[in-house]
Structures are given as structure tokens and as C-alpha cells.
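Incident log, structure service

09:12 report received: a user says their structure output differs between two submissions of the same chain.
09:20 pulled the input from the user's history:
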Amino acid sequence: MEAAEARPTVGQVLAMEMEHEAGIARKLLERVPEDKFEWQPHEKSMTLGRLAGHVAETFEWTGATIMQDVLDFAEMDYKPEPATSSAGLLEKFDTNIKAAIEILNGVSDEDIMKNWTMKDGDKTYMTMPKAAVMRGFVMNHMVHHRGQLSVYLRLLDIPVPQIYGPSADEPDM
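09:34 re-ran on a clean worker, output below:
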């Protein structure tokens, strides 16, 4: 009788997905021109540097999601970190993805299915299992802003890499 093949944990599956999405995001971040960090397509839009910095910081939220049960904005002082250099932007992204993958690969199924709450003092925004928060609040959030970043690059006439298939600039898969 053959030994049963070990199944990956939920965290390991999320880590595989995150690694894939991060590879795409990094290609976009590599193309963000440092001399355009202050550019924005509209007065209500983030600057390119702020948006790129947000894409780079999003996976940093993995630790707060997996290692804590509550994120309370009333108890923290979040300050956005716009990109200040291309090298710093990529270094931050690489550091955050490496740490996030390590955390996800090490979390047990029991722990990743525990509830996580986002609130601001007495106001609760959401309570969901940590696995759902990782997909919705962390990964899908990054994918959303990565999509915005691809539009910014297009508007600046910077070639857009393949994302989930060919792009007008990279038509061959």
C-alpha cells in the first residue's frame, strides 16, 4: 500500500498563489519610472509613487492578518509610504513578499481559519476567517491596485507586461 501524499495546508496554497501574483506585480513595479513618481492621471488619483508604494506594501499586511486576531485603526498610526526610489520600491516589495510567503507556509490550517476583525474603535468593518482576509483584503487588494498601476503605465506610454495573458506590448505567451 502506497503512503498517502501529503496535502498542502491552506496557508501553503495561498503562498503559491501569492508568489504567482507577486511575480506579475514585480514586473509592473520594475517599469515604474522614478522621474514620474509625482505624476497622477487625475487630481483625485494617487500619485504614481504613492500607488507603486501601496502595491509594494500590501503583502506586508500578511503578518498583521495571520499573527493577530484584530486590527484596530484607533490603536495604530498608519502612514502611507510613497516610493522615493526605484531600488527602494523593489527592495520593500521583495522583503514583504519573502516574509509573507514564510508566514503563510508556516501557519496551520487551524490558525488560518480563526476569525480576524478589522475595526476602528467601536466600529467593526469586517470579521472573517483569516484565510478569507488573505484572499480578499490582502491579495485581491494588491491585484486591484496592480491593475490601476498597469493603467498608469499605459497612460505614460510605458510598455505593460503580460498579466494573465498577452498584453498589447507583450503579445506572445
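09:41 both user submissions now match this output. Likely a transient worker issue. Closing.
09:42 reviewer note: DSSP finds six helices and three strands in the chain. The longest strand covers residues 123-129.
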